[in-house]
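The material for today's practical consists of a large collection of protein records. There is nothing in a record beyond a sequence line and a structure line. As an example, a complete record with its sequence and its C-alpha cells follows:
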Amino acid sequence: MSNEYKAMSNEYKAMSFFTRYSLLVTRYLLLIAHCSLLFSACGYSLVGRGTSLPPYLNSISIPIFLNKSGEPNIEFEITNRIRDGFIEDGRLKMVEDADSGLVLHGEIIKYSLKPVAFDSKDNVMEYWLEISALIRLEDRVKENIILQQELYSKWDYKVSQSVTETDVNRIEAIRQTGRKLAQEIVSIVMEGF
C-alpha cells in the first residue's frame, strides 16, 4: 500500500461515526440528485394527466356486459365496477348510450374458482376467483372499433366454516376482481397502453 493511501485510511478511521455517516449520506444525496436531473430530461411524465384519445371523444357509455361465463348475475357487478372506474378517473363523461362518443361493449367469457390452499385434511381454505372479459371500444363519431382486447383478472378469498361468510367473501372477491379489471380498462382506454 502506498503511504498516501495509508494516510487517507488513517484519517478516515480517526473520524467520528457521525462524521463518516454524514459523508455517506451526502454522497447518496448527491447521487440521487444527479439521477433525478438525468431522468427528468428523459421524457418522463405523470400518469393520469392526459389522454391518448382525440379531443372530440370526451364521453363514454358502458352498456351492461354480456355474461357468457355461466355464473349468474356477475355482469351487473363487473359492469358497475367498470363504470365506477371511469367516473372516478373523470377524464370521460359517463352518458347514456345515444349521447356518447365512445361505447365500451364487454362480454364476461370466463368465471372460475381455483382452489389454492388446503388444510391438513385436504379441505379447501382459499380460492382464486378468475374472470376474463372481452372488451370492444367503439368510436361512434367515426363509426369504427378503436380497441378489441381480452382481459383477465383474479382475486383470492378465504373459505370459512360458515357458508354465509364464505359466500360474502366470494362476492367481495368478484367486486375486487371487477375493480382490477376497471383499472386496467381505464388505463388502456385513456393512456393507450
Notes: Residues 40-49 have pLDDT under 50 and may be disordered. The helical segments are 3-14, 17-40, 74-89, 163-191. The chain has two domains: 3-40, 59-191.
